[in-house]
Protein 1
Amino acid sequence: MERRKFLQAGYKACLFLGAGLCISELTACGPATQILHLPVSDNTVRVPVNAFAKQPMQIIRPEGWLYDIAVRKTNNHQYEALFLQCTHQKNQVISEGNGFVCPLHGSRYSLDGQVRKGPAEMSLKKFTVHEDSDELIIELKS
Amino acid sequence: MKQALPLGLILLFFNLSIEAQNFTTTNAQRLIQSGEDSLLMGSNIQKTVVSGYGSAAFQRNFDQQQSTVTLERAVIFVGHQFSQKISFFSELEIENAKVEGGVSNVAEIAMEQAFLKFNVNAHQYFIAGLFTPRIGILNENHLPTNFNGVERPIVETLIIPATWRELGVGFYGNSEKIPLNYSFALMNGLEGANFEHGSGIRGGRAEGNLASANNIAVTAAVQYYWKNFKFQISGYSGGTVTLAPKSADSLGLNSGAFGTPIYLGEADAQYEYNAWSAKALGVYISYPEAGKMNTVYGNNTATAMFGAYAELAYNWLFKKSTKASLISFARFEALNMNSGIAANGEGIYDGTEKQTQLIMGFGYLPLPNVVIKADVRLMHTGPQNPELVVNPAPNALPYQQYNQFLNVGIGYSF
């Protein structure tokens, strides 16, 4: 393949990708990635319950933190808050289709934080979550 | 371009150093650093983490009637968290167990990775040092517990030369709005003089070993998640002549940052739903000026190479156990390390470099971090080109286009 043709093929691939990304409907099918930036007060973060009306999982970022928290409404209407820090070497883990993955060494976790693939051996840390009328209170010191 | 590149590199490193100096300490971080926050007490107390992975394997080559067994890899990870924003990660690897007197044809002691990571925020970071760029599936995540088969996929060994690590800087991140990851890296380029017939571009990797910085390379990747799918495209472009301009000119080669370029394009998709998982990958390499390199170095490097594979796997213990897995799989691979050869007699076609591989087997993981594997590999290649046969029959056994391998192995990661 000539260089010109190779570059043309590359440009076309980028165009296809760009076009795909513009289809906003697809974003609704992917994992929750709209990140809620929330303030920290008295070692707690408050999340409005109505945030879970459309998506059972929300990713929140406490102000000033370098790690996110995944808050998930379970099938029995309880809430779980997972600290998205890999238990292997403390790298950030990110949301993927059916769980979480650490891009550093490939550790994978299920939606409830259990290890599905190593090298991590411990589940993701969970925070205590209280429900207070229309808000969830996540205890960051728990 | 030649003047702009060093300037760009300086600015990039300058930017990193500013990034490192300008870390503002938030209330939350002060809590973390002071140890008041019980949440991160662990990271304050245990700042250095040691872990690793390894694998051992038995292989029976039925055509050659040879069996081998070896400790393929024993790798030690050392990571250290200097602060909430700066960390160090490394992988020290010993291949085939023993390097006696510092020399061995088959064994190796090497740094597989050694880089600093600078967190910009929770979803973006820079890395600088020796690292494995995001090209293909295996290169970034190559632990034996994370791929099926005793051997790594052949396409991701011979076409994408995993583990492919080089020195440079990279920027990684993920979108806050859509399920998309991205990466971009600037690295030293390949040494085209070291390309070897039969192993694609693998021999050109510098791997941090006194790499030439006369030529450089850029690589980028985008990953996108949709339902139970993960899609990725990645690309690589870099120069392959490490000689100074005068030397290169005298040999008729184009030097400079991107002189005598090589291009790689890759796309893959992975799917996982309950007990089922599947993956597919395709990669294409274009090396337009391979003929010039062959004239100088006589490596018989191809102008084009490609590889592709598809794999389907099923976990028989999916419903019975959350920790243990018994995975059976089948993978079909097709590759051609000389799908394009240089014109005017500057390249010679070799049918043995056009291969198909069918691998079928299983892996039992009593825990996600320990695996016992077994598989068979059925290989078929094109015919030998008589022009390339140095030692014809009956001096050597006739070349067999069909061969079978039995592999049994163990692997671990922690």
Note: Chain B touches chain A through 68 residues (CB under 8 Å).
Protein 2
Amino acid sequence: MVTTLRRAERAARTGTATPTLETALTPAPRRSRLGYPLFDVDVHTSFRRAEDLLPHLPERYKRRFKESGVGDSSATFLSGAGGNRDDATAPDGSPPGTNAAFVAEQLLDLYDIEWAICTGNGILGLGTIPDADYAAALARAHNDWTINDWLPRDPRLLGALVVAQQDPLQAAAEIERVGAHPRMFEVVVSSGNVAPFGQRRYDPIYAACAALGLPFAIHPGTEGRSITTPPTSVGYPARRVEWHTNLSLNYMAHVTSFICEGTFSRFPDLRLILLEGGISWVPPLLWRLDSDWRQLRSELPHMKELPSAAFRRHVRLSSQPIEEPDDPADLMAVWELLDAQHTVLFSSDYPHWDFDNPYAAFPSSMPAEWKRRIYRENARELFAKKLAVLEAEK
Amino acid sequence: MARPSQGVPAPLIDCDVHITWRTTAELKPFLPRVWHDRLGAGRGAPRIQPAFHMPIRGYHKEAAVPLAGGPPGSDPETLASDWLDRHSIAYAVLNHYDAPVISTWGDTDYPVALARAYNDWLVARWLSHDPRFLGSMVVATQDPHAAAVEIDRIGAHPQIVQVLLSSGTRLAYGARTFRPIHESAARHGLHLAIHTGTEGLGTSNPPTPAGWPSYAIEWRAGQPLNLSAHLVSLVTEGTFVEFPGLKVVLLEGGAAWLTQLLWRLDKNFKPMRSECPWLTDLPSVYLKRNVRFGTHRLERPEDPAHLWAMLRPMDGSSSLLYASNYPHWDMEEPHEAQVLACASLSERQRIAYENARELYGLHPALAV
């Protein structure tokens, strides 16, 4: 396999290869040590150079993109920990997550990942750009690049449809434009935002998601940037360890909003995926919401069921970065409370620095049936309809 | 796991009892004349008025109304007989619900004057009345140096045990700008208490990291998030390294969320510890050692055993303090506190009495 890959890379370097690198993958991937192939819901891939996206952008934005890219990517809270794995740069020099053959070698083949959702790398900053039209154009360009230039490189790659939440109507139109593509599996936005995502102003997005059966996913990383609210309700953190730790607070506020605004009652088919926002905070939050709902429900007639019931039906959480207590039994006790067996989806976060190795992601004490559900079945159930079509064509 | 259910042992220490004035005129003797007009003006009196509608609020129907008039919690004798005597409470920490809101106001001089007036009123009307009353002084955090001066002025009073801060702020409490407050409080052996309720008020940040929610239930669900961010700041800025004896008491914002924060912050600290080289222990060590939580509005799962599954990894039996929230609408008598009802006898003794006694360095109560 290595020889085939090298040949493909050499061809890529010498310009003799077009994006047909999937030929490099024809050798059977390694079999997973777990005994079944995995589903990874958070793989960060991207275009290699700004020039790759330009053909998909309208003329009027080409110069702007070359000069300012995806908005304010100043990454106020990046520290020495960096953003990507040091070893994720491909042998041909492609930046991490931009060479499909190398993604296959380092992730998909190595761990027998059958399906991987590509959530972008750096593109979600478009959700923090003040100019809604430019942001929407970037989203369209990225989706067209994903469909035309990226997904064809490996049949295991699936697309996350990027939208700019600044203009929910344009976002909905974009979902309608490309959401029916068989390999576009979800809609993804940045969790840094101007408002909680459950609010009515975003309903057009959810109507489009529900109509097309696309889950709505939120990914962190833009908290506090550009037009977004301060990353905590006590303002701006002082350094990255603080900022990163606090990312899950933003998730708690967003999911509270979805539940308390009755978004799931208005869109019973809507599913929400909380990517990379932590997990073990769920039980205390739901206990608080359930008990408060019982006391305050006269003000909340649009909430049709217990918050914990709405959460259980509509919300899924990605596993990385997993919390790490000294005693793994403590983690399992808490995950039992949030029914992790049914609510958690495996994610590697490849090629980011805090990548979770699938073979070491969970405590060894986790029951085998939980692992099977988290590594594979929960995602397969969530994306069942589109997966059925793809697998029928295999 | 079944936990024995027994009565709550006496004596108790109640770490969150809300006092107030009959009218704000009670503050006037302690406030310079120049501010008197303002105190009587529409928005001159400290009052927490959230943007969200709460269908239930106000006072508990069983809390005693003073014979002389005024709301529950406005008369020392009535408070003592209706609450402390009835429940064998050895000490009660008196907090004014509204007073900390002055730190969210846009100006500086009036809040500084009002904090002084409040503290003098607290001593004169309450602390001198009953040795069981312990006081939370307030400061105006707009001017940390004036706040430190105020702590130096009044903080040595033997019954003043902590500085009560508003949860709603422009900056997290670990920020260096608050160092004079930490330093002065630590020097006087006082702790910092943060009470929820002011998130999003005045000049403070939006009440959730995602911005302004729509309903009171979301605002309330956001309160633990606010406290959590304060804690991360206090730990990573090294406040507890510099002032190891300083404790932070979090009131009405739950506690069960701390467990996952310990795990998350420790994990993040390991690769990023070069950002805060002053920390000589894992963040979880400071969080367990220097933070305490009131029991009122603790998370309340249907199955109490679930609560302890979250509380055990954070050493809940050492960090929780019984807090009633008397006389507000959702107050909890000792037997109504779920966490006490489902704790072992020794855990109950710690939460209802011993933890607070140690925290505030109180003399052991005589048999009540």
Note: Strands of chain A lie at 38-43, 113-118, 157-162, 184-190, 216-219, 272-274, 315-318, 344-345.
